[in-house]
Write a structure and sequence with these properties.
The complex is a heterodimer of chains A (165) and B (431).
Chain A lengths: L1 H32 L9 H13 L8 E3 L9 H14 L6 E6 L6 H21 L7 E7 L10 H7 L1 E4 L1
Chain B lengths: L1 H14 L9 E4 L5 E5 L3 E2 L9 H11 L3 E3 L17 H6 L4 E9 L5 E9 L4 E10 L4 H17 L8 E9 L5 E9 L6 E6 L3 E6 L5 E6 L6 E6 L5 E3 L7 E6 L5 E6 L6 E6 L5 E3 L7 E6 L5 E6 L6 E6 L5 E3 L7 E6 L5 E8 L2 E8 L5 E3 L7 E5 L5 E8 L2 E8 L5 E4 L5 E7 L6
Parallel strand pairs in B: 2-4, 2-5, 3-5
Antiparallel strand pairs in B: 1-30, 5-6, 6-7, 8-9, 8-31, 9-10, 11-12, 12-13, 13-14, 15-16, 16-17, 17-18, 19-20, 20-21, 21-22, 23-24, 24-25, 25-26, 27-28, 28-29, 29-30
The chains are: A alpha+beta (165), B mainly beta (431).
Chain lengths: 165, 431
């Protein structure tokens, strides 16, 4: 009986952790879902996506890739998320827009260049992995379009990003 | 009796102060500002103006940080001309200078201001002047008087009749902003919207004659540089290249525009001839080169580059293309603006993770930090070199602030709404 309740507690904890993670995920995807318009125009593409997702249900498509401070190199996590997107994009032909962003620290024009460098490093990674370069457009918004506000590291880390549109 | 009433109504309509987005708070002044009394101006015709000329002059002088105006409540008398001045009274109040003046109607129903600047210690009138303006330019008339007094007492040309460009961003909805390009008088009054967009606007800058401005807008969902004629209101798109189109800067002769483009891969500095719109590439490096700023002689351009690993200021000589590094202190120096005399630069300088405005003189290459706030950006120097405007963050909001080039005077120009940033101080616009 004791053992059982412990087990139950363990399961409940794991469940709580999982829902914790899940709600985090929905938080971040909720932020971007309204921008996730690229999949809407072509109906056939959508069915491809759902077929793909049906095979590997654990893959959550993330269309924001985050960066370290003053860095434009892809983190392991960003690369994992990008791989999933690339697998999907290889089945499509439409244009891809990558928007690079920076946090507010530093000068605006330098951050504009930093945002472009980030967008380019995502573009390069896509191109190396078989996405035709002509499909990809990069635009940098620098620090002009934050998605998190306030002068905190957590806000800054959310703003250092490339968005796939 | 009837005429003054009509004129009063007319004056009320014409001189209603426009709603200012910026109000001025002086945070820190010079240690020994010159005590001065600006006595309310007398008015011959018996009507009152909505704008208080003496008060505008007083605030101008105060804002320069060099003067401490005497409060009106402390004045023992309100003379309107030199004959009515009892120097002993002013001396007992500790005032060094007194400004008196009188307003009257001139020809064509113009407003005429006669004023005098009196030296309390020598008991002499050291400046007499008369200014005339139409009634819708009362503030301009007052700023003219401020310029004359400032120049007389400091031997430096006054910059009270200059203007200010800046950008405001107001949040509309979750992650949406409304961006406006604004122009106002240097005291924040008379704000005018020059551009309004849901896409970012940035990097406004003045042509040397003050007739044109250039800025970057994302209105096509991509960045492009625009040239805007302030007299005709005509706007022209100058660039439409792949990648960055940013950081426009007019050459000292106004014929060329330096900018940053990344059409060839990495951001480099280019110079566009404005008449032919032909482009010349000035720097060529795989690193980030951005934020061009012309040397006053137009022969070289200062810019920010991270070619050494971290952003630093470099200088490229236009004739030879040779590049030299200019800043060495600290690991983040960016967005230089060159002082008018060419003897130094102001820039964004990072110390212990905080961003400040600093000045570096070229003779000794010493760096002096001017600001104590954080996230300070976009320094823009007054045409007389006395003060600079910059943007900073105050209570989580973007605000504009000013600091004297010697660091002694600071004030803030808080905005009523949204974030304001990227101030650009105009050149001299009037004689």
């Amino acid at each position: 009986m004791k053992y059982q309740s412990k087990l139950f507690l363990g399961v409940a904890l794991a469940g709580a952790l999982l829902t914790g993670c899940a709600s985090n995920d929905t938080d971040s995807s909720g932020q971007t879902s309204d921008m996730n318009t690229y999949s809407e125009p072509t109906q056939s593409m959508e069915s491809d996506v759902s077929a793909y997702e049906a095979q590997e249900p654990e893959v959550v498509l993330e269309n924001i890739f985050y960066f370290e401070f003053d860095q434009a190199t892809l983190t392991a996590e960003a690369r994992r998320n990008l791989d999933a997107q690339i697998a999907r994009l290889q089945k499509t032909t439409g244009p891809i827009r990558l928007e690079g962003h920076a946090d507010e620290r530093g000068t605006r024009e330098y951050n504009m260049a930093l945002g472009e460098r980030r967008a380019n490093s995502v573009a390069d990674y896509m191109a190396i992995n078989g996405i035709a370069r002509y499909r990809i457009e990069t635009v940098s918004y620098g620090e002009e379009r934050p998605i998190a506000f306030g002068q905190s590291e957590s806000a800054y880390s959310k703003n250092r990003r490339v968005e796939l549109k | 009796m009837r005429k003054p009433l009509i004129i009063t109504l007319f004056l009320l309509l014409w001189t209603l102060p426009s709603v200012a987005d910026l109000t001025i708070e002086i945070n820190e002044g010079k240690d020994d500002p010159v005590p001065i009394a600006v006595v309310p101006f007398g008015w011959k015709a018996g009507v009152t103006l909505r704008e208080d000329v003496a008060s505008i002059v007083e605030r101008d002088l105060h804002r320069s940080g060099l003067f401490e105006p005497l409060s009106r409540a402390d004045m023992l008398s309100r003379p309107a001309n030199a004959n009515e001045v009892y120097y002993r009274d002013w001396k007992s109040l500790g005032v060094d200078y007194v400004v008196v003046g009188e307003l009257s109607f001139g020809r064509d129903n113009n407003l005429v201001a006669r004023y005098e600047l009196l030296d309390v210690n020598t008991q002499r009138s050291i400046l007499q002047g008369e200014e005339s303006q139409s009634f819708d330019k009362v503030r301009f008339l007052a700023h003219t008087i401020s310029d004359r007094i400032y120049e007389k007492l400091t031997n430096v040309r006054g910059a009270f009749r200059t203007q200010l460009l800046y950008v405001s961003a107001v949040r509309e909805g979750d992650n949406r902003f409304r961006y406006r390009l604004l122009k106002s008088d240097i005291d924040g009054v008379g704000e005018e919207v020059l551009a309004d967009s849901m896409e970012p606007i940035l990097a406004p800058t003045w042509s040397p004659d003050g007739k044109n401005i250039a800025y970057v807008s994302f209105r096509t969902t991509r960045p492009a540089i625009y040239l805007h004629n302030l007299q005709t209101g005509q706007r022209k798109q100058l660039t439409n290249f792949r990648g960055l189109n940013g950081a426009p800067a007019f050459s000292p002769d106004g014929k060329q525009l330096a900018m940053v483009l990344s059409k060839d891969g990495s951001p480099d500095i280019y110079v566009m001839d404005l008449a032919s719109q032909s482009l010349k590439k000035v720097t060529n490096h795989f690193a980030i080169d951005t934020e061009p700023a012309w040397a006053p002689d137009g022969k070289s351009i200062y810019f920010t580059s991270d070619r050494g690993g971290k952003p630093q200021i470099y200088r490229v000589e236009l004739a030879s293309g040779s590049v030299e590094r200019v800043t060495f202190e600290g690991d983040y120096n960016a967005r230089a603006r060159i002082l008018g005399d060419g003897l130094g630069l102001v820039m964004v300088h990072r110390v212990q993770g905080r961003f400040h405005i600093a000045v570096q003189d070229f003779k000794r290459n010493r760096v002096e930090i001017l600001t104590s706030t954080d996230l300070d950006e976009s320094p823009s120097v007054a045409p007389n070199g006395s003060m600079l405007l910059y943007s900073t963050t105050y209570n989580g909001k973007g605000v504009l602030a000013a600091v004297s080039v010697d660091g002694g005077v600071r004030y803030r120009l808080p905005s009523r709404f949204g974030d304001v940033r990227e101030p650009a101080w105009s050149p001299f616009l009037y004689e």
